[in-house]
Amino acid sequence: MDGVIADSNPYHRLAWEAFNRRYGLETTEAMHQRMYGKRNDQIVRDFFGPGLAAEEVTARGAAKEALYREIIADRVEAMLVPGLREFLERYRDTPKAVATNAEPSNVDFLLGQTGLRQYFQVVLNGHQVSHPKPDPEIYLRAAELLQTEPAACIVFEDSHSGVEAGRAAGMRVIGISTTFGNLYGTVLTIDNFKSENLQEWLAVENREER
User: Fold this and answer.
1) How far apart are the C-alpha atoms of 59 and 38, rounded to whole Å?
2) DSSP of 11-57, one letter per residue?
3) Among 165, 102, 169, which residue's Cα sits nearest to residue 133?
4) How many Å apart are CA 45 and CA 52, to the nearest integer?
5) What are the C-alpha distances in Å from 94 to residues 6, 21, 90, 152, 206?
6) Distance CA 75, CA 9 (A)
7) Residues 126 and 132 sit within 8 Å (Cβ to Cβ)
8) How is domain 9-72 classified at the CATH fold level?
9) Which sequence spans correspond to the domains of the chain?
10) Integer Cα distance of 68 and 78 in angstroms
């Protein structure tokens, strides 16, 4: 979701910076880089140390995400990756899933605010699996719920951990360069869903499948 449906990582950066200052912690660029594609419990423990109790980890993660939603409240539509709505409508009849490490509240907020929930038969968040990305569990579970073989699935990813998860699941991965310009292991990298290269690649895949 983050970086694929919405170009949201700049706002996650702002939210983490503001939240961390509450604890006297200045957020470095290295910390931001480690945050991308991770589940909140991983990020909180990375930023504040592994010794936090589970309840405190959950509380800090929830507080940061509440701040994030406050920041983006009037910006959600503008955050959508260009061409996304048209792409989802064009492939409305193709089974699709959201498989994200994001917090459930953020998933509900973004899909609800934008009205995009209708396009996805399956929505999985990072708390519905035992092992978050880069583990492939969430992608394998999504394929199972879509009743589709993993090898027939195409993953759209913006993070290194997400690409790793998709490849480990035996899926083809298309990179979106909202967060990183160079994503190793993808079959194609695009700027957004308006990409002519994406349409050409999908057309070739459709012909070969027939």
Assistant:
1) 17
2) HHHHHHHHHHHTTT-PPPHHHHHHHTT--HHHHHHHHH-TTS-HHHH
3) 165
4) 7
5) 20, 44, 9, 12, 12
6) 13
7) yes
8) DNA polymerase; domain 1 (1.10.150)
9) 9-72, 77-209
10) 15
Q: Is 177 exposed, middle or buried (0-12, 13-18, 19+ CB in 10 A)?
A: middle
pLDDT at 210: 61
Would you tell me which CATH number, out of the four given (3.40.50.1000, 3.10.290.10, 3.40.50.11060, 3.40.50.10860), belongs to the domain 77-209?
3.40.50.1000
Helix, strand, coil fractions of the chain, as percent rounded to 5: 50, 10, 40
Predicted pLDDT at 154: 97
For residue 205, the model assigns a pLDDT of 87
pLDDT (tens digit per residue) in 115-159: 999 999 999 998 899 998 999 999 999 999 999 999 999 999 999
Instruction: Flag whether pLDDT at 208 surpasses 90.
Output: no
Residue (of 139, 152, 150) closest to 37 by Cα position: 139
Q: Which of 116-120, 165-169, 178-182, 199-203 has the lowest mean pLDDT?
A: 178-182
